């Protein structure tokens, strides 16, 4: 959460900073700001609200410079005010920060004692003063002052710092938050993520934990945690600019929903091309590791947790291995039992969710030896900390509400399931061929589900006026009901809850009356008749039913029962196909309510705080 960008060049860097901040807005959109060097001084512009508002003020004030830093904020310490917006300045030292400083209160006390005053309630302002203090007391230059200051911090940070007295350098530091350096010709950049600087360069260096670096126009020097110079590999980013543009779509969420046939086809491409589920999908050493495990433990948050919850059904029924799924923020703080023969699978779109990262570290500290990460962002922290990796190939996901990341996570988890099933003698050649065929048909089935959009728009308009909604599913489709409720609540702000349909009579049925819409995921599987009985229970209390049923499930619409038919039953992959209508329902209900679909209130895409 929070995005940072910085540049040192022989041209005006304000357009680079502003463009970068717009691309980083998914990381936080409470406020934004830039600081640039003007002869002998640092000039700063900050605004609450969106980057475009800050951009307009910067243009009106005629702010330009060849060295600058920028920030987009998701508020943690201190409210959403201009005073709390970054950059923060201490007598000519300006900085932007992503992360949380845990010992900021002690440092604040100490700095107050040294005569510093504070203008904000942020943890970040202490870092600016601390660097300034070191500059005045022995540090040879800005880099040395930064290196001395970070040794006194506990917590997580990505920092970019400049000083009015040192116009030829930009210094940066990284611990626990992503930061990369972009290499240009006669200009260099720093950013939380490559999308922010893609318009200037594709050549990047991913900084490692504890690194600091100094950027001048003509060079970059990186230093390891002991401040000794180190070489870090250069990478050429393959993120496409087109993937960061809206194109003909109104919102990124809409674009990303419609990209799912392509994203799924890319994610399953290797298996389809090979004509088999090969363990090497998960890394060169995967076969021996996956053959030796006796169970699976999945750790994740939010939508990724629901992907894991679906996979539990697959792993236990297809691969015949015990599987438990746990919310990462719960697991990391409980005295958990660790079975070193169980594979720990983390699922994360961003690869930098703090709770998932900490849960992974905790699992390792408890003795788990084998770890696998399913992730959408190359080189991010969680896959780097994992033994085996499977990258989903969804492409950049910018809408805060996760869509294509979820369905591609499911596709990756299904591939893991079949690989495990083969290695553990539960999936024979005939079954493998059958699963392969189901996977081959998946992008087409998802496209058919997308074609239901006009019917779903009509439903969404009815949802827009509701205060509450219930989602029901059973078995494999219960996690899809959970995902549908999460999508609806996060982008429409309608209160929505999901239940396994059989659980309704144990309490939630009390909520059902004429005002309660009840969405039912009702594919033509072995639980269909049970779901139908649960629907009767709702109808008998006046609840209005909105049913997503398969083409072949022989469902009739009637008074108070609305039915949309999804494609022919997609077998074990049905949860992926049934995700599409609930995404579309949430999207169109949000449109009808006029909420900010891509940037829902209070949220940010990449959750790097507790
Ligand atoms: C909901 C959503 C979140 C994320 C969660 C985990 O639409 O996007 O619930 O799924 O914050 O994020 P990742 O997958 O990046 O670890």
From TrEMBL:
Gene3D superfamilies given in the database record: Glucose-6-phosphate isomerase like protein, domain 1 (3.40.50.10490), Glutamine Phosphoribosylpyrophosphate, subunit 1, domain 1 (3.60.20.10)
Lineage: Bacteria, Pseudomonadati, Pseudomonadota, Gammaproteobacteria, Lysobacterales
SUPFAM superfamilies assigned to the protein according to its UniProt record, in alphabetical order: N-terminal nucleophile aminohydrolases (Ntn hydrolases), SIS domain
Gene: glmS
PROSITE patterns according to UniProt: GATASE_TYPE_2, SIS
Pfam families: GATase_6, SIS
Catalytic activity, as annotated: D-fructose 6-phosphate + L-glutamine = D-glucosamine 6-phosphate + L-glutamate
Function: Catalyzes the first step in hexosamine metabolism, converting fructose-6P into glucosamine-6P using glutamine as a nitrogen source.
Source domain of life: Bacteria
Any one annotated GO CC term: cytosol
Family annotation (InterPro entries): GATase_2_dom, GFAT, GFAT_N, GlmS/AgaS_SIS, GlmS/FrlB_SIS, Ntn_hydrolases_N, SIS_dom, SIS_dom_sf
Organism field: Stenotrophomonas koreensis
Descriptive protein name: Glutamine--fructose-6-phosphate aminotransferase [isomerizing]
Keyword Phosphoprotein attributed: no
Subcellular location(s) per record: Cytoplasm
Record's subunit section: Homodimer.
Molecular-function GO term, any one: carbohydrate derivative binding
EC class name: transferase
């Amino acid at each position: 959460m929070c995005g940072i960008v910085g540049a040192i060049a022989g041209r005006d860097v304000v357009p680079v900073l502003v463009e970068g901040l717009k691309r980083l807005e998914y990381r936080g959109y409470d406020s934004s700001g830039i600081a640039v060097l003007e002869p002998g001084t640092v000039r700063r512009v900050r605004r609450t609200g969106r980057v475009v508002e800050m951009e307009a003020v910067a243009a009106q004030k005629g702010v330009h410079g060849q060295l600058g830093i920028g920030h987009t904020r998701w508020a943690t310490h201190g409210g959403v005010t201009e005073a709390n917006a970054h950059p923060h300045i201490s007598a000519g030292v300006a900085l932007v920060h992503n992360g949380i400083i845990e010992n900021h209160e002690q440092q604040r006390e100490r700095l107050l004692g040294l005569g510093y005053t504070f203008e904000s309630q942020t943890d970040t302002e202490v870092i600016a003063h601390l660097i300034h203090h070191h500059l005045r007391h022995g540090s040879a230059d800005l880099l040395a002052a930064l290196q001395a200051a970070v040794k006194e911090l506990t917590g997580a940070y990505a920092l970019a710092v400049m000083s009015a007295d040192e116009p030829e350098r930009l210094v940066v530091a990284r611990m626990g938050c992503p930061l990369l350096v972009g290499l240009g010709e006669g200009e260099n950049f720093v950013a939380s993520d490559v999308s922010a600087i893609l318009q200037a360069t594709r050549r990047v260096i991913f900084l490692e934990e504890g690194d600091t670096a100094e950027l001048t126009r003509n060079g970059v020097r990186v230093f390891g945690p002991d401040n000794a110079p180190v070489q870090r590999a250069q990478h050429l980013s393959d993120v496409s600019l087109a993937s960061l543009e809206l194109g003909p779509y109104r919102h990124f969420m809409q674009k990303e929903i419609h990209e799912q046939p392509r994203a799924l086809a890319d994610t399953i491409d290797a298996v389809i091309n090979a004509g088999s589920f090969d363990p090497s999908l998960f890394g060169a050493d995967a076969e021996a590791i996956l053959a030796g495990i006796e169970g699976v433990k999945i750790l994740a948050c939010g939508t990724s947790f629901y992907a894991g919850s679906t996979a539990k059904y697959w792993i236990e029924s297809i691969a015949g291995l015990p599987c438990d799924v746990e919310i990462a923020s719960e697991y990391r703080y409980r005295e958990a039992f660790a079975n070193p023969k169980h594979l720990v699978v983390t699922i994360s779109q961003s690869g930098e969710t703090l709770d998932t990262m900490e849960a992974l570290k905790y699992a390792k500290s408890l003795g788990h030896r084998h770890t696998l990460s399913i992730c959408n962002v190359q080189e991010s922290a969680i896959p780097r900390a994992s033994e085996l990796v499977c990258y989903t190939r969804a492409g950049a996901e910018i809408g805060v509400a996760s869509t294509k990341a979820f369905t591609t996570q499911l596709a990756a988890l299904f591939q893991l399931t079949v690989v495990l099933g083969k290695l553990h003698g539960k999936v024979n050649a005939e079954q493998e061929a059958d699963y392969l065929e189901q996977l081959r048909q998946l992008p087409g089935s998802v496209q058919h589900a997308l074609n239901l959009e006009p019917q779903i728009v009509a439903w969404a308009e009815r949802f827009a006026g509701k205060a509450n909604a219930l989602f029901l599913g059973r078995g494999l489709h219960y996690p899809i009901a959970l995902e549908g409720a999460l999508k609806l609540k996060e982008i429409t702000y309608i209160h929505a809850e999901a239940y396994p349909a059989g659980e309704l009579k144990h309490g939630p049925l009390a909520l059902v009356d004429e005002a309660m819409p009840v969405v039912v995921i009702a594919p033509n599987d072995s639980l269909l008749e049970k779901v139908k009985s649960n629907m009767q229970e709702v109808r008998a209390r006046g609840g209005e039913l909105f049913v997503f049923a398969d083409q072949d499930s022989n469902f009739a619409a009637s008074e108070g029962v609305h039915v949309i038919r999804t494609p022919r039953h997609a077998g074990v992959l049905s949860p992926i196909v049934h995700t599409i209508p609930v995404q579309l329902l949430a999207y169109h209900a949000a449109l009808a309510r006029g909420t900010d679909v891509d940037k829902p209130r209070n949220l940010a895409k990449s959750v790097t705080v507790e």
